[in-house]
Amino acid sequence: MSIWGKLAGAAAGLAIGGPIGALLGGFAGHYAIDRDKGDEEAGENQVAFTVGVIALGAKMAKADGVVTKDEVNAFKEVFKVPEGEMKNVARVFNLAKQDVAGYEAYAEQLAGMFKGNRELLEDVLEGLFHIAKADDVVHPAEETYLSDVAHRFGFTDTEFKYIQARHVASNKRDPYDVLGITPDTSDDDLKARYRKLVAENHPDKLIARGVPEEFVSLATEKVSVINEAYDEIAKERGI
Asked: Minimal CA–CA distance to 64: which of 138, 165, 151, 136?
């Protein structure tokens, strides 16, 4: 079942508290809930992940003061939202914009829920970056917002820099930052790091750590950037 079909059942059947739970409750109030076994089996990780990203995306929209059509389209690309479900996504998005809870509360709840699963928290940041750069520029206010969310997720400044590096314009991208290494890294360690990053972003790995199938297409873009960075360094080193 699509994640969009799971949300209604999750709103009624999962014990998700905090601001994410409140959003689900508000969503349920607008949705004719018809729970079935598929709904009962909806993973809390997938539901919390999806609602959390919608909420953080909505809060980020306030960071630069305007939600552009490009940003909306980018969200639809990441999540593969069927046209028939856009109204339900919009409800969650609009509820999050109006909610008195700040983005800090959503970030900290996700950090608590996914403690020990840094890869999944990194996936959340990747999705937010994809939305932020949809209008071809990451506004300074959005960059500050994303940096603060990353810190609340437990990432260091250096780790955030590596994540951010994958989302700058290709002609300004540092391949070493993209791979999270330095020019001093040996060829063997470079190859090991490259293989690790590609393996971590295989669609099966993302689904296994709780990322909705609708979101997995973003991994293709990420792996493409990783491949380009490795090829550039390999060519430079003659390996």
From this structure: 138
